[in-house]
Design goal:
By secondary structure, the chain is an all-beta fold. The protein contains no helices and 11 strands. The strands form 2 sheets. Strands 2, 4, 5, 6, 9, 10 and 11 form a 7-stranded mixed β-sheet that branches. Strands 1-3-8-7 form a 4-stranded antiparallel β-sheet, with no helix packed on it.
Length: 122
């Protein structure tokens, strides 16, 4: 079992930056693809970014490409999401996930955190 705990969310203004962290316990993350998803009120959960287990491959949704960067530190069992140039439409609960398959679909991930709220005011 893997337990994931997100942190770093908060209330910011448009144009600001935030860095989310996802700390894992219970099992090393080094063999999992890690992903970030988000869910805004009244909307389905959507893919944000993912990173391969060695960190050599990353991919983003079109809406976050060029603004949000995913990274990982396997020695610290932690994954990060650096979010720059935040927009009001980035407002959502952000979830960290780990999966042996990984990808852009939430069913490809096996473990999920509880989420952290990000609110961007205009």
């Amino acid at each position: 079992q893997v337990q994931l705990a997100e942190s770093g969310g908060g209330l910011v203004q448009a144009g600001d930056s935030l860095r989310l962290s996802c700390a894992a316990s219970g099992r090393t993350l080094s063999r999992y693809t890690m992903g970030w998803f988000r869910q805004a009120p009244g909307k389905e959960r959507e893919f944000v970014a993912a990173i391969s287990w060695r960190g050599g491959t990353t991919y983003n949704s079109d809406s976050t490409k060029g603004r949000h960067t995913i990274s990982r530190d396997n020695a610290k069992n932690t994954v990060y999401l650096q979010m720059n140039s935040l927009k009001p439409e980035d407002t959502a609960v952000y979830y960290c996930s780990a999966g042996s398959r990984g990808g852009t679909r939430d069913y490809e991930y096996d473990y999920w955190g509880q989420g952290t709220q990000v609110t961007v005011s205009s």
